[in-house]
Every structure is written in structure tokens, then in C-alpha cells.
Amino acid sequence: MQSPRLSAALEAVSLAARATLAVRHGQVPMDMQTKDDKSPVTVADYAAQAVVVITLQKRLAEPLHMLGEEDAAQLRENAALRASVLAAARIALANPALTEAELVAAVDAGAHASADTSGNHWTLDPIDGTKGFLRGGQYAVCLAWIEKGEVVLGVLGCPAMAAAGDPVAVSPVGSFYAAVKGQGAWGFAANETLAQARRLHLPAWNGQSVRVAESVEAEHSAHGEQAKVMAQLGVPTTSVRLDSQCKYAVVASGRADAYLRFPTKPDRRECIWDHATGVLLVDEAGGQTSDARGAKLDFGHGKRLEKNYGIIACAAGLQGKLKI
Length: 324
Ligand code: AMP
Ligand code: MG
Prior knowledge:
The protein is α+β, with helices and mostly antiparallel strands. The protein folds into two domains: 4-199, Fructose-1,6-Bisphosphatase, Chain A, domain 1 (2-Layer Sandwich), CATH 3.30.540; 210-321, D-Maltodextrin-Binding Protein, domain 2 (3-Layer(aba) Sandwich), CATH 3.40.190.80. 31% of the residues lie in helices and 21% in strands. The protein has helices at 4-24, 43-59, 73-77, 79-93, 100-109, 130-135, 223-231, 246-252, 276-284, and strands spanning 32-34, 40-42, 66-68, 121-128, 140-147, 150-158, 175-180, 184-189, 198-199, 210-214, 237-241, 258-261, 288-290, 311-314. Strands 3-4-5-6-7-8-9 form a seven-stranded mixed sheet. A five-stranded mixed sheet has the order 11-10-12-14-13, with helices on both faces. β10, α7 and β11 form a beta-alpha-beta unit. α1 packs antiparallel against α2, α2 (43-59) crosses α5 and α8 runs parallel beside α9. The site of magnesium ion has 3 residues, from β4.
């Protein structure tokens, strides 16, 4: 499954994960800001986006088209924030010569507002689950390559989640996942290499019980509606709550049977960078993905999944039983 784009994406995500850990481990001050939509953003979010952009630009001989979550507006205004982000990016890239101007330009080169997404493009959530990151819980670095509205390559970094076993407990050794459309999905521990990666295989649902992964934040998905749909299955159910696209890796690696994300508001449309990577992981591990009403997910409408309502990612045989 090796390709220049995949190996560049793996390197980019692994260096970005290093930037987030430099912040989490206190090598760089953790400065938290609030964006216009009231969501949190940290030094680590900006550093991870810069590191991914710089790495892809260095490794790939093609112009970068990226729909990334962050932009550099706050970085331009706030010198202290800029200095901390620069420190984290320098550590991750092992490049003490990186300048503030290069840093700011890199964050903006990945910003969704300026993205040309008429053709093939990347999408990036430099830290998905920022609330989990701030809480000391799970979070993920999520990078995907989209062609004509279909995700064809995805790399997920879960710096605090083990490759096997309990996904909620924070692990000192994180994990990485990669998927290529039509070729499969793989997972490996952060202290292993891609050569040691294991193919992910999600078995069909056993019909006996259901383990569901869902968001920690009640605002992000309708826990009550999800519990109702699970209860209708008439089998014992358990719920595992964790932040970020780590949930997709939990399903793809067979640690849960489904990830449910039913909207809390009727007009809510999901951002593509919150799902592109994870959806490909589950599809390529042999699972099934759709929106909460069973419709195919369509990543070809800009920043949001405009034609879709919520998300279901699950083992084969379960999808038709979980719709709203
Ligand atoms: P999770 O960690 O799975 O709860 O999801 C984190 C993501 O939820 C963030 O990256 C946000 O983009 C997204 N988000 C923020 N507000 C909402 C909302 N009201 N409904 C659904 N997703 C949201
Ligand atoms: Mg996100």
C-alpha cells in the first residue's frame, strides 16, 4: 500500500503528534484560545497544522490544496501564542531555524477559507477532540486525501490511545492507523513502524450484544437518541465514550461494534475534517458507514457534509438496525 502520498501523510501525522505531545508534556506552554464559534483552540492545534503542511510541502512535488480546520488570524494578533506555537513546531520538526513567518504561512496554507477544493485535496483536523486534549483524554490528528468527493487515503494519529485494549485509558504509547481505498486499513503502535502494522479487520456483527462508541460531549451527539436506537436492538448494550476520531479506530480495530453520532440540532452538518479519515478506516476494515438515516456519505460539498445528517459507522450487518 506504499505510495509517496501515503508515506508523506504518515510522516506528517507522526511529526504533528510529536508537536501535540510537546505541549501535553509541558515542554511548551499550553495556551488556550476561543474561536469565533466559541470552540477551543490551543498552541498544539496550530503547531500540528503547521507541521503537517510543512511536511507535505517538503515531501510532495505538487501544490498543496488543503481544507484544514485552523487559520492563522489569531496567530498574527497574539505574539505570545505565536512564540509558543513556533516552539512546538520547531521541536516536532527538529528545525530550530523555522521562522515565525514560515510558521504563519504554513498554517494559512492549510486554512479552509482559502482552499481550492474544486479538484482533489487534503482535509486536516490538526487536533480533533480539542476538548479531550484539554481534559487530558483522547484526541486525534486526522489527515485525508479526497478525490471527487471520495476519501481515498487517510492517516489517523491517536497519541494517547493504545493500539489494542482499553481505548479510554490514556496510554504512554499512542497508535497510528492508515487506510487506502480498495487496499485495506492498518494499525500500529507509536513505538512500531509501518512495516509492523497489522491489517484491521472488523468482523460482521455477532447479533448477541452491542458495544457503541460515542462522544463524551453531550452537545456533539444526542446521547438519548443513540441510547433509544441501541435499546431497540433488544440485546445487551455498552457504551464507550471518548473524544475525537479515535472512535473510528476503536470500531475499525474491533474494540466496538459501532460509532453513533446523531445530531443534537436538526440543522447541524458535520465538518469533513471530523470524519474523512475515520470513515475510510472503518470502510476498509470491512465495516459500513453512512449518515444517521442510512444515506451514503458525500465529501464533495466543501467544508461540511451538506447532504448528510449525522454518522453511523459499524460492523457489517448492523447498519440497517441503527438508523434514526
Ligand atoms: P467529538 O470529540 O467526537 O465529540 O467531536 C469533536 C468535534 O465535534 C469537534 O472537532 C467539532 O468540530 C465538533 N462539534 C462541535 N460542535 C458540535 C455539534 N454541536 N455537533 C456535532 N459536532 C460538533
Ligand atoms: Mg474536530
